[in-house]
Specification:
Blueprint: H1 3-44, H2 48-71, E1 75-77, H3 86-96, H4 104-107, H5 110-131, E2 134-136, H6 140-169
Antiparallel strand pairs: 1-2
Length: 175
């Protein structure tokens, strides 16, 4: 097995493990896990600048996404009525480190990222709410189409913004 494939699979597995850690472990465990993963990732990454942009944009878009769901009465978090919990912010950061790596096959294709995001993100939220402290504030027939519609835009928008920012920052590949 090639080194690139091992790194890609490791990136995907760490994200999946992180999903469970964040959802089941709560904010304290999520922050610790995410901090360790980010330090290790950026120590070994050869696209640090692009990955940093991806993580920051993922957190910002994620906050906008989740704040919209909270303030329109679609979802409620026991930890905070006004802000997404830290464990959810950590999930967005972990997603950010997959976009130029294990998810690049979808991320670099706007149509595919839009369609698969619109189909799979609602399922992730559905599972996440079942396993976490989050609660639906509206019927699922209202919430899931809203999440799907948002995700039709999120990954293509993330990619567009990432490319724009990278062109100004002039990211260089290391190693």
């Amino acid at each position: 097995m090639s080194r690139a494939l091992v790194l890609t699979l490791t990136n995907a597995l760490i994200f999946q493990l992180g999903w469970f850690v964040c959802i089941l472990g709560g904010s304290a465990l999520a922050v610790g896990f995410t901090a360790i993963v980010l330090v290790i990732h950026f120590f070994f990454a050869n696209r640090r600048c692009d990955d940093a942009i991806a993580v920051v944009l993922a957190i910002l878009l994620g906050l906008a996404h989740d704040l919209l769901l909270i303030h329109t009465g679609q979802i409620h978090f026991v930890e905070s009525a006004q802000l997404p919990p830290l464990w959810l912010v950590c999930l967005w950061a972990l997603l950010g480190i997959t976009l130029n790596h294990s998810l690049q096959w979808i991320y670099y294709r706007p149509l595919w990222s839009s369609l698969l995001g619109g189909l799979l993100a609602p399922l992730s939220y559905l599972a996440g709410v079942k396993l976490s402290s989050a609660e639906w504030s509206s019927p699922l027939v209202e919430v899931l189409p809203i999440i799907a519609a948002l995700w039709l835009v999120i990954l293509p928008l993330h990619r567009f913004l990432s490319l724009r920012i990278s062109s100004y920052v002039q990211c260089k590949t290391t190693k």
